[in-house]
C-alpha cells in the first residue's frame, strides 16, 4: 500500500473508531443554527502563496506546489496519529523542504522565509467580507476553527480586520491534535458554549466536511475546487462553490 493511501486510511479508521454510531446521522434536524464556524480555507486563500512559488521557481513551481500541499496535510495526520505534535507553521516548513528535495528545487534561506511569511498574510476570497457582514447582520455568531497555529490565525485575521465579525478565533493548538480528530471539532461547542447541533461547520476540504459530519455538526462544504465528495458514507447538509452559495442556503 502506498504511504499516502496508508496515512489517509489509518486516519479515517482512527476517527471511525472514536465516534459513536449516532454521529452518522445525515440530513437536517430541527435544531436552530446559532453559530457558524469556518475552517480557515473557506475564508483565507492560499493562492498568493502558490503564485509566489511560481514566480520564484517557474520551471518546477507547479510540481513543487502539488507535493508541498499534499505533504502539508499528510504530515498533520501523521503528527496526530503518532502523538508528536508540532504546530502548523512547522509542519508547513517541513513539508516545503520535503517538496523541494523531492522535486529537485534548490530553495535558499531567503526564499524559504519569503514563502513561510506569506502564510501570515494570506488573501481572503473576494466575497468573504460582504458575506461575513451579511451573516453577522442575520444574527449568527461567527468563528474560525483551523489547523493554523494561533499566531498564524491571529496574524491573518488582523491583516484583514476580521475581529468585528469573528467572535472566536480557535486554533487546534489548544488540543495539539489536527483535524479530523474529534477533539478538534469539540473545541467549537466548548468555546461557544453551544450544543454541537446548534453549530453549522463550514469546511473547505471534503475530508474535513466528513470529519465534522461524523462528529455531529451540521455541515456545509464550500467546494471551491469543485472536487468530488469523499466516499465515506456521509452526506453533508449543504454544499456550494463559495460563501454566496452559503448565504443562499441559509436564506
Explain briefly what this protein structure is.
This protein is α/β, with parallel strands linked by helices and 251 residues long. The chain has helices spanning 3-18, 47-56, 61-81, 88-103, 109-118, 128-137, 150-159, 182-192, 206-215, 243-250, and strands at 35-38, 44-45, 123-124, 141-146, 168-171, 199-203, 218-222, 238-240. The longest helix has 21 residues, at 61-81.
Helix and strand layout, with pairings?
Layout: H1 3-18, E1 35-38, E2 44-45, H2 47-56, H3 61-81, H4 88-103, H5 109-118, E3 123-124, H6 128-137, E4 141-146, H7 150-159, E5 168-171, H8 182-192, E6 199-203, H9 206-215, E7 218-222, E8 238-240, H10 243-250
Parallel strand pairs: 1-4, 1-6, 4-5, 6-7, 7-8
Antiparallel strand pairs: 2-3
Helix pairs in contact: 1-3, 2-3, 2-5, 3-4
% residues in beta strands: 5-15%
The proportion of residues forming helix, as a percent range, comes to 40-55%
Q: Helical segment tally?
A: 10
Could you say how many structural domains there are in total? 2
CATH architecture of the largest domain: 3-Layer(aba) Sandwich
Amino acid at each position: 500500500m502506498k504511504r499516502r493511501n496508508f496515512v489517509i486510511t489509518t486516519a479515517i479508521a482512527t476517527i471511525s473508531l472514536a465516534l459513536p454510531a449516532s454521529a452518522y446521522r445525515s440530513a437536517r434536524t430541527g435544531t436552530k443554527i446559532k453559530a457558524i464556524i469556518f475552517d480557515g480555507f473557506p475564508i483565507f486563500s492560499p493562492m498568493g502563496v502558490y503564485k509566489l512559488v511560481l514566480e520564484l521557481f517557474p520551471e518546477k513551481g507547479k510540481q513543487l506546489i502539488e507535493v508541498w500541499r499534499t505533504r502539508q496535510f499528510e504530515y498533520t495526520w501523521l503528527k496526530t496519529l503518532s502523538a508528536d505534535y508540532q504546530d502548523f507553521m512547522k509542519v508547513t516548513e517541513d513539508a516545503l523542504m520535503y517538496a523541494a528535495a523531492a522535486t529537485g528545487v534548490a530553495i535558499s534561506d531567503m526564499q524559504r522565509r519569503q514563502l513561510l511569511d506569506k502564510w501570515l498574510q494570506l488573501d481572503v476570497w473576494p466575497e468573504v467580507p460582504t458575506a461575513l457582514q451579511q451573516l453577522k447582520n442575520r444574527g449568527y455568531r461567527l468563528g474560525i476553527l483551523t489547523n493554523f497555529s494561533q499566531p498564524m490565525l491571529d496574524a491573518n485575521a488582523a491583516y484583514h480586520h476580521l475581529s468585528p465579525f469573528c467572535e472566536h478565533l480557535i486554533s487546534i493548538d489548544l488540543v495539539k491534535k489536527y483535524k479530523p480528530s474529534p477533539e478538534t471539532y469539540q473545541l467549537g461547542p466548548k468555546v461557544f458554549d453551544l450544543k454541537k447541533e446548534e453549530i453549522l461547520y463550514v469546511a473547505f476540504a471534503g475530508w474535513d466536511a466528513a470529519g465534522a459530519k461524523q462528529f455531529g455538526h451540521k455541515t456545509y462544504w464550500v467546494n471551491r475546487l469543485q472536487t468530488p465528495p469523499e466516499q465515506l458514507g456521509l452526506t453533508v447538509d449543504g454544499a456550494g462553490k463559495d460563501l454566496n452559495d452559503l448565504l443562499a442556503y441559509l436564506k
